[in-house]
Structures are given as C-alpha cells and as structure tokens.
C-alpha cells in the first residue's frame, strides 16, 4: 500500500510540475542573505524545471556565483485555506544549458510562455535547468512526502 501511495504522490507531483507556469526562486545574495523572486517555469522533455533568466537580474547574478537554489511551485486550491494547496519545494543547482540543449528546450518554454519570445531573441536571457537534489511534496495539510530527485523525471 505504501508503494501505491508513493506512486500517486509522484504522479501528482509530476502533474503539478508539468502544469505550472511560475515559481518562487530562492537564491543566495553575495552577502549570504536569501533572495526570493518570481520566475516563469516550464519543463524539459524529461520533466526537469526549465527557466529563462536575464543575465542582469539579481537572481541570475546570484546563481552565477552560487548555483544552489530552491524553487517553490504552488498549485491551486478550491477552499479558503491556502495551506491546502499542493506545493513542491525543490532544491538543487542551476545549470546553464548549452546550445544543443537550448535547441530542444526553447520550443517547450515558448509553447508554455509565448509572450517570452522577445526575451529569447532580443535581450540578454539564457536557459537554465534545475538539477534537483531534493524534493518535498506537500499535497495539503498533513499530506507531506519526501521524493527523490529522479521521481519528478519522466524520461529522456
């Protein structure tokens, strides 16, 4: 039974990740203090979080110096209590994509965020992948599960 519950949690976490359009990115400022910013999120073909970030943004300057980050993905809830919404807390390292990976990721990102095309073509933005180290999935009050980094990945 525990494996069925875990599989259901993995499926729900993957669905939340696939449906999300934004998240709260936590990075580390030069002085060691935390910074949390709103970022647009898509997924790589394997389900890994995909971000398009400006080189001049404070969070990008932070990750170029210290790539350890946290990303919070929040689902929606129907009731009056926001703590019943499903949410994923991912931590890991941000990795800049190379040209080959960008070619595959770009279409996925722009499909989810068509308004981002000017960022992709005209400004100083680059694509990044979150190499997830740990995942905490909360499906609402009292429904918490730690998942492994590979649990969110769906394949190549």
Feature tags:
single chain, 156 residues, Pnp Oxidase, Chain A
Can you offer a commentary on this structure?
With 156 residues, the protein is an alpha+beta fold. It has a single domain (2-77, 84-151), classed as Electron Transport, Fmn-binding Protein, Chain A (Pnp Oxidase, Chain A, Roll), CATH 2.30.110. Helix content is 29%, strand content 37%. The chain has 4 helices and 7 strands. The chain has helices spanning 2-19, 58-65, 99-112, 117-122, and strands spanning 22-28, 34-43, 49-54, 68-74, 87-96, 125-138, 144-147. The protein has a 6-stranded antiparallel beta barrel with strand order 1-2-3-6-5-4. β2 and β3 form a beta hairpin.
Helices and strands, in order, run as HEEEHEEHHEE
Mean pLDDT: 91
Q: What would you give as the CATH superfamily?
A: Electron Transport, Fmn-binding Protein, Chain A
**What is the CATH architecture descriptor?**
Roll
Q: How is this fold's topology laid out?
A:
Layout: H1 2-19, E1 22-28, E2 34-43, E3 49-54, H2 58-65, E4 68-74, E5 87-96, H3 99-112, H4 117-122, E6 125-138, E7 144-147
Antiparallel strand pairs: 1-2, 1-4, 2-3, 3-6, 4-5, 5-6, 6-7
């Amino acid at each position: 039974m525990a494996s069925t519950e875990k599989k259901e949690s993995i499926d729900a976490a993957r669905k939340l990740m696939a449906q999300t359009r934004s998240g709260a990115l936590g990075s580390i400022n030069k002085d060691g203090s935390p910074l949390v910013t709103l970022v647009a999120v898509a997924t790589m073909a394997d389900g890994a979080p995909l971000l398009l970030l400006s080189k001049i943004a404070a969070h990008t300057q932070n990750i170029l110096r210290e790539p350890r980050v946290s990303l919070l993905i929040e689902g929606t809830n129907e009731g009056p209590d926001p703590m019943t919404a499903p949410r994923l807390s991912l931590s890991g390292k941000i990795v800049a994509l190379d040209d080959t990976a960008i070619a595959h990721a770009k279409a996925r990102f722009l499909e989810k965020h068509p308004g981002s095309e000017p960022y992709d073509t005209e400004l100083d933005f680059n694509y990044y992948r979150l190499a997830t180290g740990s995942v905490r999935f909360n499906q609402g009050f009292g429904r918490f599960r730690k998942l492994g980094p590979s649990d969110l990945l769906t394949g190549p």
